[in-house]
Amino acid sequence: MVGILSLPVDILTMIMVIVATSGNGARDLAWISATCKDFKEVAKQASVLKMLNFRDSISTCTLDYRKHRHPKDILFLCARYGNQIAESSFGKGILDGDYWCWLMTFLNSNPVRDESGSIICGPLWHPRLVRSFILHGRCQHISKIFVPLHRYIVSNSILKETRPYCAPSEIMDMCQYEQTRADILSYITQYAKSTGRPIEDFMVEPNKRPTSLAHRENVIAVFDLLFPPPPF
């Protein structure tokens, strides 16, 4: 332990980034941080939190933002530093109309900097959170966002003259496709449970799966036109 702690901070940070991006990144980082105060401090660095892996074997992930309503919560800090899975979780909160999620976007309107003073991420802009949710949210959640997402676009798009007509067909196609994925996943999960085998045994290898992002990317293409990112 002493030998590891004597390493330069840059090397320790690199080690933590490797841990953070591993298959069980969030769990492993929490375990390592609990073993040593110095590790805990390194684990809080922006470069580590931005890369922290929350994903599971299903490849999409939406964590319950309602359990993380605190400015110093690790999930919120990850979102603040541009971690897209963390952003996705709070993006769902934005579409749900959650007061706390909206409040945080107003209270975090400045870019954030890393330990060296360099800007690592822009303001906590609510379209960025919603965009991450569209790309990374679980199919079970994406399948149900037709009304919330269309309402959000109509209410917040800068293109006032066209926003009522933007993306309904793209959103509907995405929701229907994701509902099909959710139904298949539910069946596989139940079957795996009945056989006592892990669900991974029934999943197609990632490199052999058909693309599942096509419908989401169609929505994103329209979304990016309606919500061009602001300079910071």
Provide the descriptors you would attach to this structure in a database record.
232 residues, mainly alpha
Summary of the model, kept short:
By secondary structure, this protein is mostly helical. The chain has helices spanning 2-5, 9-20, 25-35, 37-43, 46-51, 74-80, 84-96, 99-107, 126-136, 139-142, 146-156, 168-195, 214-226; strands at 112-113, 119-121.
Task: Describe the structure in your own words.
By secondary structure, the protein is mainly alpha-helical. The protein has a domain at 1-53. 59% of the residues lie in helices and 2% in strands. The chain has a two-stranded antiparallel ribbon. Strand 1 (112-113) and strand 2 form a beta hairpin. Helix 6 (74-80) packs across helix 7 (84-96) and helix 7 packs across helix 8. The chain starts with a helix and ends in a 6-residue tail after the last helix.
Element-level helix/strand string: HHHHHHHHEEHHHHH
Number of strands: 2
Helix proportion range = 55-70%
Instruction: Provide the low-confidence segments as ranges.
Output: none
Mean pLDDT: 80
Content-based structural category: mainly alpha
Query: Gap between N and C termini, in Å?
Result: 41 Å
Largest sheet: 2 strands, antiparallel
Radius of gyration: 19 Å
What would the principal axes of the Cα set say about the shape?
globular
Q: Spatial order of the strands in the main sheet? A: 1-2
Strand content: under 5%
Give me the number of helical elements: 13
